[in-house]
């Protein structure tokens, strides 16, 4: 089987960086991208190609980048939408521009990048589109509403896209990690601000302290996460013989929290189900 070609966004650190390393180690071809291509120049030493890509660029720019990427190896088999950032803040204090910044990268960046590569995948009637979501799509955190909202949006967008692409032969995979030791919580990747309002200050101070204490102590191993993602795409190791998952939690914390959320939702339906159904004609 000929090597598959992967394009990964946001590869300067974290999941993106480890994915590129794992892709190359498994014998596939990787195109690593970042806003500042010099930050990923070292990946050429392991055999990856590099390409400058800012997912917040206009659609026509992303379309040209897709063409440039395809020309490197002649195809793109797997697109990994990994680029993202987070900003802490109470909803009342975060401006429209703050929210828009989160959505421009985490949602519109992923959607627009996917749109740029879909014509190529449709013409081949094959391909895989991967979105790196988050556990927080299932249960919002205080002072993290904008980031949680972006990951919830990606969750729904990925589920809808899967139904559009499955008849064509293109698969989607939504990966929803728990807490992994990435650069996401490091400044300036994660912007923090204690509330200026006394009412919110206890919440925001607690959240900021918890994040600072947690940073560097997250339970998830990014190397293992990269291995599991590649396992699924290639149907190898622990993924061999299993059906395509569509959505995959990563990390024991993600599995536990999502199960707890689902159980709580079922309990709510048990209590409120008849009341809710009483609105039918």
TrEMBL record:
Keywords: Oxidoreductase. The keyword tRNA-binding does not apply. Pfam families: adh_short. GO terms for molecular function: oxidoreductase activity. The keyword Oxidoreductase applies. Belongs to the short-chain dehydrogenases/reductases (SDR) family. This is Uncharacterized protein.
